[in-house]
Amino acid sequence: MKKQFLILQISVIAVITLFTVIFLPGCASLSKSQMGTVASFSNSCDSFAKYPSILFTEMAKIRADRGCFYTASLSDPLLRIKELNSLSKALAADLELAKKMDISLEILVSYQRVLKSLSHTDRYNNTGREFRSLGRNLDSLINRYNLIDISDPLPLGVGKALGRIVGYGAELWVRSVQTKAVREYVVAGDSLVGAVSADIVKILSSKSVGELIDNEAKGLDANYLSYLKSGEGSRNVGGNNFSGRDFSGDREYLMLLDRVNKLSVIRSSCVSAAKALAKAHGKIATEVVKRKKIKELYPEIEKLDDELYALRLAVKKMNL
């Protein structure tokens, strides 16, 4: 599960840093609408980083909830308590892992600090420190990612490229130097963003993740069947009576089944957003190398933002 979280964090840091370098040095020439687009994009990236976490966290919660049907079917009080304690420990472990790996808040804070320093009248004195911090954070995440021996190592050097840009100092605000810096960083960052985006798609589209989702559906059926066959299930105590039948357990089963079905929606939405991210970044890298004007890149950013906004709404409707 560490892999799923790390690839998202690396991708978001790389992209946010890239757009900070490209857009913000010339923020004085940008309209309020364009600045709003950049802000919306950064917020969408922050939200995007959380969705794989939502997917695996929700699976863990469903696993615990459906397990309660099985524990309710146990007649031996000691076995029942033992099973409940086991469910609690498993859920706590899954949620703690998600908490440790979800650093999207840290990314957002870093981005806000850079934005604030670049917007300040004394921005020249603050910019280098913020860029160096982002560079160290990015390289640290890449190293942690590469220690997980699952796929080919990700390319290093993006943080170092950012360090070289910091070395330009005040000259970064000279257009010719800025163009050189942007081109250097985009070329270094494109291979990284492409690699992590491909990994996101590969992992979430994998057969194993599909089997995990299918297992929750099958496990829910099996657990509820055990519950129904037990004396506890036959009573189904606590529900509203309809023609002499209590059905609170049935209602809980339907609610859990709906949550299981939504897992596939989250999964496909994450894959779609990852593909859009890679496409938008590739387009931006191409246009920057071609010396296209910054304002000509906004359509691609807006397309990505629309994709991520749709994903955000989809997850919000799930009430997760």
Question: Could you walk me through the main structural features you see in this protein, from its secondary elements to its overall organization?
Answer:
With 320 residues, the protein is mainly alpha-helical. It has one domain (2-317). It is 81% helix and 1% strand. The protein is built from 12 helices and 2 strands. Helix 1 packs antiparallel against helix 6, helix 1 packs antiparallel against helix 8 and helix 7 (158-167) packs antiparallel against helix 8. Mean pLDDT is 64; it is low at 20-39, 100-127 and 237-245.
> Given the structure, what is the number of helices?
12
Number of individual domains: 1
Strand content: under 5%
Q: How many β strands by DSSP?
A: 2
Which structural category fits the helices and strands?
mainly alpha
Radius of gyration: 24 Å
Which bin fits the share of residues in helices?
Answer: over 70%
Largest sheet: 2 strands, antiparallel
Mean pLDDT: 64
Task: Trace the largest sheet across and list its strands.
Answer: 1-2
Distance between the termini: 19 Å
Uncertain parts: 20-39, 100-127, 237-245
CA-based shape:
elongated
Secondary-structure element order, as H and E?
HHHHHHHHHHEEHH
